[in-house]
């Protein structure tokens, strides 16, 4: 038991360093450079080096130099951790932005973008159905891929990520008549660890991608003092967006696959007539979960 707790503590410490301390130290270093250089001397590495040497010499000349060094290191650690917590807090609004849950003042833009995506999806869907009805089977794969690149279902969000995360609920509702929002907590309780672990890991990757977006916001804000930081923020933001798309794709696919594989166990738990899975059974179970509310 002691060995298990020690190993668990080691893993927690490693994760704390990887997710909080290291990114925070990098940001703290960039922030310090920004404050020293400013906009006028943004590329003056000689100035930065002189300031660093002066700081080191001043610390070494004092009798309490070692104590000052410890205080500086503790201050850096505190600043890095604080920056990491701010970035994680900003990860939530970044997730809302990427998933299409925009604030009230952006609703008009959200509606316009959603309508634009919906119009494109409907046009591509018509082309696909026309080819299907006309027997043009060689083009079906290409047309389906083009339509699904916009969204797997008719868009209801201004962003691709938002529609991708909502797609499992819409697709399983159409296929099984299941209210996934009501059914998911019950289904989760029935899943074995082998099914839960990939879901948890994929969700963690999505959260980490949005936290990276939080770091992008911090770097962009630092651009007010030192403009190269805004460029760093832009690059980090693009990486966060790309990772969020990939993570959302994996997570949504796993959620839908989980329903496909384990839905019969859920229905067996709540209804004796479970095979074959029919929309009527899914609707009946959904009504039971909602408890007529």
TrEMBL record:
<protein>
    <recommendedName>
        <fullName>Vegetative cell wall protein gp1</fullName>
    </recommendedName>
</protein>
<keyword id="KW-1133">Transmembrane helix</keyword>
<feature type="transmembrane region" description="Helical">
    <location>
        <begin position="70"/>
        <end position="91"/>
    </location>
</feature>
<keyword id="KW-0472">Membrane</keyword>
<feature type="transmembrane region" description="Helical">
    <location>
        <begin position="212"/>
        <end position="241"/>
    </location>
</feature>
<feature type="transmembrane region" description="Helical">
    <location>
        <begin position="16"/>
        <end position="37"/>
    </location>
</feature>
<keyword id="KW-0812">Transmembrane</keyword>
